[in-house]
Amino acid sequence: MVASAFLPELWTEILIPVCAVVGIVFSLFQWFIVSRVKVSGDQGASSSSGGAKNGYGDYLIEEEEGVNDQSVVAKCAEIQTAISEGATSFLFTEYQYVGVFMVFFAAIIFVFLGSVEGFSTESKPCTYDSTKTCKPALATAAFSTIAFILGAVTSVLSGFLGMKIATYANARTTLEARKSVGKAFIVAFRSGAVMGFLLAASGLLVLYITINVFKIYYGDDWEGLFEAITGYGLGGSSMALFGRVGGGIYTKAADVGADLVGKIERNIPEDDPRNPAVIADNVGDNVGDIAGMGSDLFGSYAEASCAALVVASISSFGINHDFTAMCYPLLISSMGILVCLITTLFATDFFEIKAVKEIEPALKNQLIISTAIMTVGIAVVSWVGLPSSFTIFNFGTQKVVQNWQLFLCVCVGLWAGLIIGFVTEYYTSNAYSPVQDVADSCRTGAATNVIFGLALGYKSVIIPIFAIAISIFVSFSFAAMYGVAVAALGMLSTIATGLAIDAYGPISDNAGGIAEMAGMSHRIRERTDALDAAGNTTAAIGKGFAIGSAALVSLALFGAFVSRAGVHTVDVLTPKVIIGLLVGAMLPYWFSAMTMKSVGSAALKMVEEVRRQFNTIPGLMEGTAKPDYATCVKISTDASIKEMIPPGCLVMLTPLIVGFFFGVETLSGVLAGSLVSGVQIAISASNTGGAWDNAKKYIEAGVSEHAKSLGPKGSEPHKAAVIGDTIGDPLKDTSGPSLNILIKLMAVESLVFAPFFATHGGILFNHNLQQLASDLSLSLSIVSNSSLLHLHPLLPQVGAFA
What we know:
By secondary structure, the chain is an all-alpha fold.
């Protein structure tokens, strides 16, 4: 008999929800502090957010320069309202379409999984232990459907709340920039923390409650219970796909249109209020980079947890009904919330930001501190939450594992995430030579800029892939597929901090846009630009984390799928598997082509509309007339809603079609091919786009002598950099981030439908179908021979022989 965990079951049942509630309370506390910055003319209220902490003092630049403060604040409030209303309107429209899909796909889950046992309500022998009886397939179908809906709703809420927080904080960040860059940083970071903790804690709490409610019905049938729970991950990721693709198309259509006409043709600054696409561009930052990213990382967390729980349920944890050890993935996430809470205080309370150069190190320190403290946290959880020795399911056998080995599995994922983050920063930050080389290539025009940028993206893949490969090898060697799943959870354990620094970027970007549109002082714009430049790099780091964790999550789900579908080996020498590999490796290219063309088509309409307004509205360039912002917002909304459907259908239908017609072996090949291909493209696309963006900002900032020699704004090198940035926009904000959802979503969908594919899949290769074809051929032969009986007396014998 295997020993139980040191931590009693009762304490586990208390600790997990308590940690989740602590995370939610902390996020609300951060929101309360941000709300004390008033978007009104009340300076006293505005200056109450923290006294002299994190800034030189509370005097305003406008007071120093004699500008009317009241009108500036009113203008900020007006712009903030326009951005918030635009983002809310788009998300409501998107969620109406997504809601229809959610109901339709929930019905497919119920019908397909219910048909596995012919909609029988009788208990069946368990899949992994035929001596035991498990709940009927119809129950798995019903509970998987409920879990899918819960995951989908949680994902949608995560994205929507993130967007509301970001649009609440953008103008407040701008107003605090009047006092100091430190105060502006604190507001932006606290707002990011609200989203990070709310998402991490609510995802954990909903999953934990779902498990306990399902346990009332399933009782001791933990195999069936955690198989049904996989629907939670599918729901989270399917909503994330539409959020990422729809939001990405929206934001980049507006961004490309605004840049091409505004910066290059009309030579006006970024976020100039004369540009008709400027509101749509700022709305896009919130629906793409905030709402889409929130749903994406929630999906990763849900899938990693589900993959680990499925494997654990058929290991000694599940067989012996050791609830504490079974909840090890949830205990890691709970510890992560507490660690991220402490880490956040280092940025908001323990240290002050007094200069622009301190912003980026402060954000990087968040990653380092959270990783270091989390390493200790994982050691504690592994010691109290796991038996000293236990067994893990490993493709039909039980592998003996020690608790220190599982600790190393989680740590290798955690530290691999940090390495990927720093490599991403090296290749996308303009403080280092790769981006500076790309900027320098703009001397000879846009063509060399594009060549250098593509080369940088391809090169940036090398170290992250080695980091992922090493973490897979170590974690699989120690604890098979369960080790890979908890390594993915290790990478995502500091998700609250990761989301905080990721959401900080779009909030700062919006703050800069509001400062420009409100006609604020050039010194304020310099401060918001500094915040934005640091945010660009952190956004790239966030995408690196998302892609790295997606690779590990996808592999863990793949392992759970092949186990559940009864595939003992995936032999690449068999035709069934090799065709799957080829098709799977092609899918990320097909998907990227669809999303990039969608951005291009929408941007084309946007460019034409912006040009039309500049040419037909008298006084627009002079600033005496107001542009028609609403038309540009409508173009982005209509395009993104229409264009997000085909890529979404490609990802959602591929596993169903392949599994049903070609079987689980071919589907295994498709999943492996899409994983191997998709990770490379996603990393290179995200880093190429990030490098082009920061190369442009490097020239615009003109901090170093080298940068000054390439500038100023409007120079030929700067125009070449803007073209590179424009090309990179759909790469880094639409195709790249969406690809990590593709590889995860196809894997978790295959896992959910594995019972159906194992029972009814592969009809084209099915023995019964071949027998049917043989019988049909024989029948035709007999009919043909019978019709010729009168032609030769020997034919009756031939017909009888046939």
